[in-house]
Design brief:
About 25% of the residues lie in helices and about 20% in strands. By secondary structure, it is of the alpha/beta class. The strands form 6 sheets. The protein has an 8-stranded mixed beta sheet. It has an 8-stranded mixed beta sheet with strand order 16-15-24-22-23-21-19-20, with helices on both faces. Residues about 1-45 and about 230-260 have low confidence and may be disordered.
Length: about 675
């Protein structure tokens, strides 16, 4: 039975579900010496050892291919698509041959990934795969190993991306059955080895049973096939997986003969019961992977990287506008002719000065907006002038600097990107130090050991509600301890986290860093509402000076805007559920008898929204203004009009480089 036969049987699997890519780049600790005199040249060769056939991979400088991989990533990025690179586990990685360099070459290939922090699965990620996961005469996976590989890939896709058409959790193993495609199969490794050794087909005794996993469901598939002469040699072909449950019929249906050819450059598999498409670039010999993908995706657009020069990846990726995810599946032992591009594809997201045209993904998969270096002297001078005015009015001033999302000791940026948010903030705080009371949240968070992983949403530029709550706690404690306002939260009820419920919604929020680009690029975030457990009675008045929405009730009823909590809308701005998002002005009245009579004005950007809600628990009157939208009065005039006792400014440090208006306090 020839290699194409096994390949076709695998493809027919069009089933077994996307391979969960296992297999480690780890070699056995014991170096195994070959038991054959067959020489292995520097260009690679085949080996027989303990009844197993191997393909030996020569040492190779992978820098050029790694650059091609970066080009693939940039092409995807420019086309608003996510890309998952999968370094496929190969048989020789588990043999421990000292003259095999497949694991080393794969590491060199994935070095390009580290330049842009691409999503990737590497052989070392597949702990369940071992030498017994492969067939003896070739590098194909056995059905059980294929299922494990599928599971790992699907777990990664579920974790990283937003696919809603079908529950993508791995289809259960019991929903499949192994079907014998051939009981006399001899793979490429054995055939090539025996040919080099002078053996003939008649003397080969290494034939083995080849099986594939088929799903026991009623999914209907179509195949569209394209050869290297750029003509479709087969129209759509339909078949039902359940038809192929007998080994005698598995290969005989002439409607599927086009797939038998190994000359295809593009193949499209359709699952008529699903809709979501995916693009796959691969150089695989075992095509079962491509078939497995069609159990989960409605359209698998597959390009073979070994058969033809595909030209620019940018065009191929861009042509398939309906597919938001690109998989690149690479067997490092096989050719990559079609991956090569003659010129570098520039990442359009990164400007020459290191700033970005949109959010980019950092080393933590967190979407970030690198900021340029700016002079913050004008911002500091304006704040000092405001301080002088408020001092003359007997009004206190506190500045709360929210932390930057990009921190030098935690967030690594893709090659070419630079961020100066921390430098800008350092300069600003240095200018106001000793003159304006402030809280530097980044240093405070570090001082209490608050994990940086929790500071921000991955997909949004805003901080987590928990981060806002910690900043709020610090603010209230500072007001009591340093200003002597002992009537503020006298029993510490309002700042004790144990008195609040954390209402979590898993995979619920797609934030601004991702929402306007590609919702599949960075996945989704868990979202949390922090709600008091104790009784509350609050009145909320939006744009209160001109008449607007009024809500009276509990904290949740008055301050949490249900409009933004629509589960059916994946891109609704969930963060704006706190107090209804950015508004020019608000007034919150608290009818709790223990609330302080002190009047607070929150001058804010959107980082203050959850802080506003928490702060309102402590004061009978709390006002908010956003001077991007509020133009009726200057801050000092507002303080005079409403008898404000303290102004609290809560800003993101990014505002220093992109929101100058927020520092024009007059």
């Amino acid at each position: 039975m020839n290699n194409n036969y096994g390949r076709f049987a695998s493809l027919l699997a069009v089933i077994s579900i996307i391979i969960s890519l296992l297999a480690a780049s780890v070699s056995c600790s014991k170096i195994i010496e070959p038991d054959t005199d067959m020489s292995v040249s520097d260009s690679g060769g085949y080996r027989l050892y303990n009844g197993n056939y191997y393909k030996i991979t020569a040492n190779e400088d992978m820098s050029s291919k790694a650059n091609d991989l970066v080009n693939f990533y940039n092409a995807c990025d420019n086309a608003s698509k996510a890309m998952l690179y999968v370094g496929m586990p190969t048989k020789s990685m588990f043999a421990g041959f000292k003259d095999d360099y497949s694991a080393k070459n794969e590491s060199g290939m994935t070095a390009g990934i580290n330049r842009y922090y691409m999503d990737a699965l590497r052989p070392s990620d597949f702990e369940d795969i071992g030498l017994d996961s492969f067939m003896k005469t070739c590098g194909y996976y056995k059905p059980k190993a294929g299922y494990s590989i599928y599971s790992k890939i699907m777990e990664t896709i579920i974790e990283y991306y937003n696919y809603k058409d079908r529950d993508l959790s791995p289809l259960k193993a019991e929903n499949h059955k192994a079907v014998t495609a051939s009981d006399s199969f001899t793979g490429e490794y054995a055939a090539s080895y025996n040919a080099a050794s002078g053996e003939t087909a008649e003397t080969m005794s290494e034939a083995e049973t080849y099986s594939v996993l088929l799903p026991e469901n009623d999914d209907i598939f179509r195949v569209k096939y394209k050869s290297s002469n750029a003509e479709y040699i087969s129209d759509f072909t339909e078949y039902n997986g359940s038809v192929y449950n007998t080994d005698t019929k598995l290969m005989s249906d002439k409607r599927l003969l086009p797939i038998l050819s190994d000359d295809y450059t593009q193949m499209i598999l359709y699952n008529l019961k699903l809709t979501k498409p995916i693009i796959v670039f691969h150089n695989l010999e075992d095509l079962s992977v491509i078939g497995l993908l069609s159990q989960t995706f409605g359209k698998v657009i597959s390009y073979d990287l070994t058969k033809t020069d595909l030209g620019t990846a940018e065009k191929l990726i861009g042509d398939n506008t309906d597919a938001p995810l690109v998989l690149v599946l690479i067997d490092i032992t096989r050719p990559l002719t079609g991956m090569h591009t003659n010129t570098d594809i520039k990442n359009l997201s990164i400007n020459e000065d290191g700033t970005t045209t949109r959010s980019v993904r950092s080393s933590t998969r967190r979407m970030v907006n690198p900021q340029p270096r700016v002079s913050t002297a004008p911002h500091a001078n304006n704040l000092l002038k405001l301080k002088d005015k408020l001092d003359g009015m007997g009004c206190e001033l506190m500045y709360i600097a929210a932390p930057p999302k990009i921190t030098p000791d935690y967030t690594l940026l893709p090659e070419g990107a630079e961020d100066h948010t921390s430098e800008n903030l350092d300069e600003f705080l240095s200018a106001i130090d000793g003159k304006v009371d402030y809280i530097d949240c980044r240093s405070y968070f570090d001082s209490i050991g608050y994990d940086k992983e929790k500071w921000f949403y991955d997909t949004d530029h805003h901080w987590h509600a928990e981060s806002a709550f910690i900043a709020y706690q610090k603010c209230i404690n500072k007001i009591k301890d340093e200003y002597g306002w002992y009537d503020v939260d006298p029993q510490s009820r309002n700042t004790d986290i144990n008195n609040f419920t954390f209402d979590w919604h898993e995979k619920y929020y797609i934030g601004s860093n991702t929402r306007d680009f590609n919702i599949n690029y960075a996945g989704s975030d868990d979202f949390c509402l922090i709600i008091p457990k104790f009784d509350t009675l609050i009145k909320y008045m939006r744009t209160f000076e001109s008449g607007g929405i009024v809500r009276t009730g509990t904290y949740y009823q008055a301050l949490i805007d249900q409009f933004y909590l629509d589960e059916a809308d994946p891109v609704s701005i969930k963060y704006a559920a706190y107090i209804g998002g950015d508004r020019n002005s608000n007034k919150i009245e608290n009818y709790d008898s223990t609330a302080s009579d002190k009047k607070i004005l929150m001058v804010e950007d959107s980082f203050s929204l959850p802080v506003d809600c928490f702060m309102s628990l402590n004061f009978k009157e709390l006002y908010t203004i956003d001077i991007r939208f509020y133009t009726a009065r200057s801050i000092s005039a507002f303080v005079k009009a409403y008898g404000i006792d303290m102004v609290v400014i809560v800003y993101s440090p990014e505002t220093m480089s992109n929101r100058d208006v927020l520092y024009k306090f007059n």
